[in-house]
User: Fold this.
Amino acid sequence: MTPTHFSFTTAFILGLMGVAFHRTHLLSALLCLEGMMLSLFIALSVWSFQMGVTNFTPAPMMLLAFSACEASAGLALLVATARTHGTDRLQNLNLLQC
Amino acid sequence: MNPYVLSILLISLGLGTTLTFMSSHWLLAWMGLEINTLAIIPLMAQKHHPRAVEATTKYFLIQATAAAMILFAASTNAWICGQWDINQMSHPLTSAMTMTALALKIGLAPLHLWLPEVLQGITLTTGLILSTWQKLAPLALIIQTANNTHPFLLTTLALCSTLVGGWGGLNQTQLRKILAYSSIAHLGWMILVSQMAPQMTIIALITYIVMTTAAFLMLNNINSTKIITLASAWTKAPALTALTCLVLLSLGGLPPLTGFMPKWLIIQELANQGLAATATIIALTALLSLYFYLRLTHALTLTLSPQITNATTPWRTPNKQPTLALSLFTIMATCLLPITPTIFTLMT
Assistant:
């Protein structure tokens, strides 16, 4: 395992654990998702750079575009949640459990 | 919703699934999954009540996490083996991680807790899309990666799903939650044979889609989301109520109906592979599901609603809803068992 591989793996797993275990605010979950996406961006760009696959160089850009769309959808949902529930705390999302 | 926006969203839904179907590269498959997720979010949140927004938020968080995990597993595989092909994900760690992420995406048992809540918060039509069309793309990926996955993981996921799907539905009074648990149980049956006989998975998926579509369209037609409103369904549509029982029993898998076909073929396949213990367990867990379908049937036919209908019965007034798809799917959900050999030959 190269140092680059180790660093993006650690970054991704930290982000994933942030989503899974730190469940207070919706905004922090969205930030963790964005951190996961950025670690994937590093993974893809360094992979194409190290392997010398020039065909693959647009892929990190596409990943970034999709993650931007996803982040904007997440922020829109954050606004919608704040309007309907009054707060962005994940504890308040409890209307559907029974 | 504006029809232009609606058509764009529906086309995007189709585009995402098709992109995942035809891709052999993990990045393209991931893009298809993302397009699918992003296209259904406005459909889920179109009614601005708190429950819909909450369901959409939960769905978004789960799907985004699962998609990121899939891409992470694929890029790790590329770093280790230098391979982006879906069929050749050979490293055991990455294939297990992909399967876990796909299980999270479609709601298999240890990762299923979001599905009943999300389905409870949205309308029946969007719920129909969510429980049929949205399962296609992840299941296509599951069928392609199942060859390289450890069988123990698949069997555990499948048995947990059928058990939890049967058990969780027992205590529910909300029809959409019951349908969500039924979806979990059926997906368990599909995953169980995805490695040894992928064509059985496809047959089970097709019959599940037909039966669930019929059930959702019927509930939409009589406009009921709770068991108690089922008891007065006969005042709205007597013939439809009689057929709803058959569709529900077909979902439960009783012999003269379509739902028996996938269970029969899958158990036969398991017996051929010498997995008698697995076949016994999965057949017994199907009984748990059958119990709550029987409860729904009982509420539909044998109970009388406590409200007294003072007005003339509503079935006298003409029903303006379109019924072509409903009748088609109902017939397919009840009468397809005799052509099992044809379907089997077409698939294999």
